[in-house]
Amino acid sequence: MSMVGNTFADPERVVAEAQRWIGTPYRHQASRLGVGCDCLGLVRGVWRELLGAEPESAGPYAPDWAETAADDPLFTAAARHMVQVADNVPRRGHVLLFRWRTHMAAKHAGIALDEARMIHAYQGHAVMISPLVPQWRRRIAGVFAFPAQGLPRNKQ
Asked: What is the model's pTM?
């Protein structure tokens, strides 16, 4: 596997795999290239292609982005299995997590194509490229990199 600094997966491989998913129809909780996926399903599919088996089951989750929760399962899982980017600045190949309000759990994910665009899926749309406009940027809850290997990493 190609690595960058032996810590992160090669961002070119991450983006190339994410681009393969463009046009995959939106299907809540699915993760099958060309068949259906949601935002997390896209990230899970890229993980499987680059790193092999998923480190844990996603379990059931609601499609409601405005859901309030006592915990933050998406963010917590990302922190367990990916490398958190300390400066929170999206760069090519990074996984972006979004929350709609500060008191809500992160409920959306995308993969940065570059500093200005992301690849993501959301209800009513296939996997697509969208600009990282201010409305998206201000909702970034965390920025993560796929690890070079399927092992948990500490914050870098």
From this structure: 0.89
